[in-house]
Amino acid sequence: MQMRRKKGWMSLRVDELVRETHDTVTMRLTDKDDGGRPFDFYPGQYLSLRFDDLAEKPVVRSYTMSGSPCQTDHIEITVKKIPGGLVSSYIVDQLLVGQHIRALGPMGAFAIKDEAQELFMIAAGSGVTPFTSIIREYGNKCPHIKMHLLVAYRSRQDLINWEVLSQSYSNVRVVTTLTRDTAEGFCFGRPDDDMLREFFNGRYEGIKVMTCGPEELMELTKNHCRLHGFDGVMTESFF
Ligand SMILES: Cc1cc2nc3c(=O)[nH]c(=O)nc-3n(C[C@H](O)[C@H](O)[C@H](O)COP(=O)(O)OP(=O)(O)OC[C@H]3O[C@@H](n4cnc5c(N)ncnc54)[C@H](O)[C@@H]3O)c2cc1C
Predict the structure, then answer these.
(1) How remote is the CA of residue 90 from the centroid of ligand 1, in Å?
(2) Ligand 1 pocket: which of 61, 210, 212 to mutate (most atoms <8 Å of CB)?
(3) At CA 114, angle to CA 131 and CA 31, rounded to 5?
(4) How far is CA 238 from CA 70, 126, 138, 149, in A?
(5) Ligand 1 binding residues, C-beta < 6 A
(6) Beta pairing partners, 209
(7) Looking at the DSSP assignment, which residues form a beta bridge with residue 235?
């Protein structure tokens, strides 16, 4: 299939801002000139966003699409505010509907195409965004792709993209662990080897594994899988 894309920096309009949590927003962006979604992408890919007026020099940051390629009317990007962070604080605290943002992309190989495989995804915090996109794209619609997501959040106040992840899907299992909050329906504690063992449940062959989150989590996942004979973990660092 021919992927539709724009050359160079494009201008996107902020059409809607949806508050996800106390420190996270989802932006709905459309093509400034034509409206709608200006390009095609694979779930898991990201855009570079450029802000010319936040500092002396333009600043560029990458953000993964949390929306799905099947949403043709806009792109969604979910941004978590990093304390003291220049761009994330601006987006979460100050950005307004109607403003324009320069964007380049889509890009990135941390993505899946419609492959008949069992997919294990391990994330923490804002690292869930590529997996939100994948689940939105393939959840229910592609029952031949079995998906498992283990996601860690700090507390019930930090459930990013929860509207998507808390839905029920015929082919998606979501395991959510809270690291600083005990609550019914959630696991408790940081992902560790025992949690991963339970999550994988002995399935280490013919699978695809993707992880996005702190370095520590990605290392844990790679080491765990390696120990069980699987060496192809895909990682995406947000730093
Ligand atoms: C491929 C890719 C995809 C990404 N997708 C997303 C996404 O979907 N949603 C999202 O919220 N962010 C995402 N990020 C992170 C994003 O690009 C920025 O790094 C983040 O928003 C911080 O930028 P800032 O300008 O606010 O912070 P800065 O002003 O650059 O940094 C402020 C301080 O925060 C630290 N810091 C920088 N980045 C992070 C981070 N990610 N986590 C913790 N501390 C950090 C810095 O070391 C510094 O001390 C992605 C990054 C990459 C590389």
Answers:
(1) 12
(2) 61
(3) 65
(4) 24, 9, 23, 18
(5) 46, 61-64, 78-80, 82, 84-89, 126, 129, 236, 238-239
(6) 120
(7) 211
pTM score above 0.85? yes
Residue 117: what are its φ and ψ, rounded to 5°? -145, 160
The atom of ligand 1 lying closest to the CA of 125 is 11
Please tell me the distance from the alpha carbon of residue 190 to that of residue 109, in angstroms, as a whole number: 27
Output 112 or 228, whichever has higher pLDDT: 228
Selected residue with higher pLDDT from 1 and 32: 32
Buried b / exposed e along 75-94 (16+ C-beta atoms within 10 A): bbbbbbbeeeeebbbbbbee
What the block records as the tokens of 11 is: 């201008």
3-state DSSP helix/strand/coil percent for the chain, to nearest 5?
A: 20, 35, 45
The owner of tokens 């699978």 is: 207
Q: From the alpha carbon of 66, which atom of ligand 1 is closest?
A: 8
Instruction: Spell out the residues 6+ positions from residue 116 whose beta carbon is closer than 8 angstroms to its own.
Output: 144, 145
